[in-house]
Every structure is written in C-alpha cells, then in structure tokens.
Design a protein that fits this description.
Elements: E1 26-32, H1 33-37, H2 40-52, E2 55-61, H3 63-71, E3 77-80, H4 83-91, E4 99-111, H5 124-134, E5 138-140, H6 146-158, E6 170-172, H7 177-187, E7 190-194, H8 195-200, E8 207-211, E9 218-225, H9 236-247, H10 249-257, E10 259-260, E11 263-264, E12 267-268
Helix pairs in contact: 5-6, 9-10
Length: 273
C-alpha cells in the first residue's frame, strides 16, 4: 500500500489504495480535503486506533471524487459533506446507510481592501451578487467537491451564472481547499471556504472573513459505510466499528474537543439513540 500527502493536508495516514488490499486490521476512508486540512484526522484517528487496533487510512479528495472512489469500491467508509449526493449514493445501493455526524459552516474570505464591499455581510446571496456586479476576482475550487457543490448552489440562488465570467473575474482552480486558498490569496480573490480549514490555514496574509452567519452557509458532514453487496471486498466489521465509534458519545465528544487556536472546528450532531 502506497502512502502520500495532499497539499495542505496533515494526516496520520493518507492512502491511495483499493479495498481489495485492505485487511481485517485496516480500513480506507474516502473523505474530503477540507476535513483533512483542518487536522481533525490527526487528532481523531489515534484515539480510535488505540481503542480498536484498526488502522485508518484516509484518502483526502473532493467530495465528488470521494464518492466516485467509493462507488469503485476503493474504500470502506465515506465521510463527506454533500448530503443530497450522499443520499443518492445510498439510494443506488453503494452505501448501507448515511448518518449525520457533525457540522460547521462556510465563510467567504477576502482581502482587507474588500473591492466588492461585502465585509460584514450576513446575506451570502447578496454578497455574491455584489462580487459579480463588481467583477471582483473570485476563486472557486471548481472540482465538484462538497464546497464547490454548495458554492454553485448559492450562485444559482442569485440567478447569476458565474461561468459567464470564467477565466476573467471567476477563476476555477480545480484544486483542494488549501490550494485554492493559496491561489485565491495570491491573486487577491474572494474565496468560499469551510470555517475549519480557514481557522487552520497558515497563509492568511491580510485576508479575513468578510461574509458569514447566513443560515444558507450551514455545512453538514455525514458518515456512510460502503455496502458489501456492491463491494464484496469491503471490510464490513472495520467500517462498522469506525462509523459506530464516530457516532458514539465517545466519538462525538472527541470531535467536539478538537480545537485550533482555542476555536472549536466541528460540532457533533449525530442522532441520539
């Protein structure tokens, strides 16, 4: 099994492998760059691994790619943040069940100069409209990630098609969250990011949160074991053990306890039994 690292991700283990190579003592989790960039897995995985003896290998990509990987049986558990796509994954038989795990929110960050004048706004559609009207630079992930899916849905709510400005004021990086933040800051563009990645991000320069606090910026994560009926090589017991631990009081408390710069990054909200 080969291990590597993605830009901005600091993981206990990041594996690009297939479930066919997993054994009873290891699982592969298909997850997101935003979750990895936050450092959450560095904190959580040793706790679970010490308790269970199960090695957790995380593939950190955009949500869309993570779902495709899981559909190709390249994983045992899916942990992403695009609920409609996750529910479609389960409905198609690729996941056994999807459960809410934790949440945070999205924010729009931008340079101190704030060329579109959106600083302090709590209306995300209004802010996006001002950015488009000003043709202020906006860096989009453009990678079918959960963040990108949410961003596109928010643009749709404004009635504006940002693709009309593609390559001009609207720049699509095709990259993960950390790389897109680096690119956006380099070009002086606004960027929509999950708050956890922003808190953990080290290259803020003169950037700050310009838009936050709109209910439409809610960011829900879910956990879904891969269905052995579709993927016979899946580590069923390992996937269940990890999912059950994340959803347990112990796992939920561990998620709540993870902080960066004394700020809580994720808020557990698994349903109570």
């Amino acid at each position: 099994m080969t291990f590597t690292r993605t830009l901005g991700a600091s993981l206990t283990a990041l594996a690009f492998a297939t479930a066919a190579f997993a054994d009873d003592s290891s699982i592969i989790v298909q997850s997101t760059t935003s979750t990895a960039n936050s450092g959450l897995y560095d904190y959580l995985l040793p706790l679970f691994q010490d308790k269970s003896g199960i090695q957790v290998n995380v593939v950190a990509v955009g949500t869309g790619q993570a779902i495709k990987n899981a559909q190709n049986c390249d994983g045992d558990v899916l942990l992403v943040h695009a609920k409609p796509a996750e529910e479609k994954f389960v409905a198609a038989g690729f996941g056994t069940d999807r459960t809410d795990l934790m949440y945070n929110d999205f924010v729009i960050v931008g340079p101190e100069a704030d060329p579109a004048g959106v600083g302090g706004m709590h209306d995300v559609q209004g802010a996006l409209t001002k950015i488009a009207d000003a043709e202020a630079l906006f860096a989009s992930r453009g990678d079918d990630s959960g963040t990108n899916k949410k961003e596109i849905a928010l643009w749709a709510d404004t009635g504006i098609d940002p693709a009309a400005g593609s390559g001009e004021w609207y720049r699509e990086t095709g990259s993960g969250m950390g790389a897109t933040l680096n690119a956006g800051i380099g070009m002086g563009a606004y960027v929509m990011t999950d708050r956890a990645t922003w808190i953990s991000f080290k290259n803020k320069q003169d950037y700050k949160i310009q838009v936050e606090g709109d209910d439409d910026l809610f960011n829900q994560y879910g956990v879904t074991p891969v269905n052995p009926a579709k993927c016979p090589a899946v580590n069923v017991d390992g996937a269940k053990a990890f999912s059950d631990w994340l959803l347990s009081d112990e796992g939920q408390s561990a998620i709540a306890a993870y902080k960066v710069s004394d700020q809580q990054l994720f808020f557990p909200n698994a349903p109570k039994n």
